[in-house]
């Protein structure tokens, strides 16, 4: 298994502060987890808690750069139509058996495959320009993971896994209405199969503030080499 555990110079911590003051923060913070796990809220809260000027770049930010015809219906509770454009972009495919809870996976066509494979290189360009980044990501498959590893080689990466019980994910999914129902179930068994993490947080068991506190504690512990 490839690993996204960080490499390079480790920061030093001044002890006794709620938010650690590090001589060097990671170049990149990866936040990976399934749809509806609360990653975006967590990323923004983490960004606000860290004094270093992190940008937040997310999977959805890149998707929304494309024209909606390529993901028509994928931002609703059910993608009712497939056409020549969604075939090039993304189509939601049900993988569950009839009569069982829906599980849906994303099938990327060539337009969106190019897009998802360009996400990590684009984030690397931001980092190379002097901008630390919190990357709000969803690793759908090994190709995306390997693209991430190639693109971040040589960077100091801190990897966060975001988990949440499936029942809570599905309730959030139904409530928000901008995700195809079944995406959470379709991703839950896939998204965490590729990489190792420096810390994992459960957004179903803890609020955002508690998750941020755990992440900051893990950053401090890593600074001490624990």
Q: Give me the side-by-side strand order of the main sheet.
A: 4-7-3-8-9
Record field, number of beta strands:
9
CATH class of one domain: Alpha Beta
CATH superfamily of one domain: P-loop containing nucleotide triphosphate hydrolases
Report Rg: 18 Å
CATH topology of one domain: Rossmann fold
Order of helices and strands: EEEHEHHEEHEHEHHEH
Into which percentage range does the β-strand content fall? Answer: 15-25%
- Average pLDDT reading: 89
How far do the termini sit from each other?
23 Å
Count of alpha/pi helices: 8
Shape: globular
Return residue spans where pLDDT drops below 50 for at least 5 consecutive residues. Answer: 1-17
Tell me about this structure:
The protein is α/β, with parallel strands linked by helices. It contains 8 helices and 9 strands. The chain has helices at residues 39-49, 59-63, 84-88, 110-128, 142-151, 166-176, 183-188, 208-223; strands at residues 13-14, 21-22, 28-32, 55-58, 90-94, 104-108, 133-137, 157-163, 199-202. Strands 4-7-3-8-9 form a 5-stranded parallel sheet, sandwiched between helices. A two-stranded antiparallel sheet has the order 1-2. A hairpin with a 6-residue loop joins strand 1 (13-14) and strand 2 (21-22). Helix 4 runs parallel beside helix 5. The longest helix is centred in the middle third of the chain and has 19 residues, at 110-128. The relative contact order is 0.25.
Keywords for this structure?
Rossmann fold, disordered N terminus, two-stranded antiparallel ribbon, globular, 226 residues, alpha/beta
């Amino acid at each position: 298994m490839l690993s996204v555990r960080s490499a390079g110079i480790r920061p030093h911590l001044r002890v006794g502060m709620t938010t650690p003051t590090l001589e060097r923060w990671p170049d990149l913070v990866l936040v990976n987890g399934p749809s509806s796990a609360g990653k975006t809220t967590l990323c923004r809260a983490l960004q606000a808690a860290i004094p270093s000027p992190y940008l937040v770049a997310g999977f959805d930010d890149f998707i929304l750069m494309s024209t909606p015809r390529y993901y028509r219906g994928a931002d609703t509770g059910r993608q009712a139509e497939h056409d020549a454009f969604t075939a090039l972009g993304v189509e939601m495919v049900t993988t569950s058996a009839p009569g069982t809870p829906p599980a849906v996976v994303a099938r990327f066509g060539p337009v969106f495959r190019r897009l998802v494979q360009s996400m990590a290189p684009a984030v690397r360009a931001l980092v190379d320009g002097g901008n630390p980044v919190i990357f709000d990501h969803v690793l759908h498959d090994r190709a995306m993971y390997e693209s991430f590893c190639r693109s971040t080689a040589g960077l100091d990466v801190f990897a966060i896994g975001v988990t949440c019980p499936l029942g809570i994910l599905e309730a959030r999914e139904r409530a928000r209405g901008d995700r195809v129902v079944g995406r959470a179930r379709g991703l839950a068994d896939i998204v965490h199969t590729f990489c190792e993490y420096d810390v994992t947080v459960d957004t179903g068991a803890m609020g955002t503030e508690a998750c941020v506190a755990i992440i900051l504690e893990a950053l401090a512990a890593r600074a001490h080499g624990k």
